[in-house]
Amino acid sequence: MIDRALIGAALPxxxxxxxxxxxxxxxxxxxxxxxxxxxxxSARAAGHPDLPVPPTFLFCLEMDDPGAFAFxxxxxxxxxxxxxxxxxxxxxxxAHAGDRLHIASLISDVYSREQRQLDFIVKSTRITxxxxxxxxxxxxxVILGEDR
Length: 148
Hints:
The chain is α+β, with helices and mostly antiparallel strands. Helix content is 19%, strand content 36%. It has one domain (4-144): Thiol Ester Dehydrase, Chain A (Roll), CATH 3.10.129. The longest helix is centred in the N-terminal third of the chain and has 10 residues, at 20-29. It holds the Pfam family FAS1_DH_region.
């Protein structure tokens, strides 16, 4: 069972600069066909200063931190038992290519189910640009028990 004392623990924060070529590759990978996500002229014609960040791309930036999963190792969690449970996004402002985004996460909840055979860690993340809130994300990590 994961210790509930972890609730509120801050994870190391990091900054990422949104790369235009990476946005284009992401748009292609998800099958996005709107030219506003791949063509700067189209983006500007639509009122954006540069290519806008597509939904869910922010999760990629969170994962860019080399220590994104370090807290799991520090807790002695067997990564072979870790599953992605849920991911939610709430957007507050648009981000664009060239923006420097600050990504800060904390453990917002810890709980168990099925007679402690499933542990859950809820990680909440705030993404800001110059103190302006861009998005909040919530990620539920599931840890399977020994008998799973």
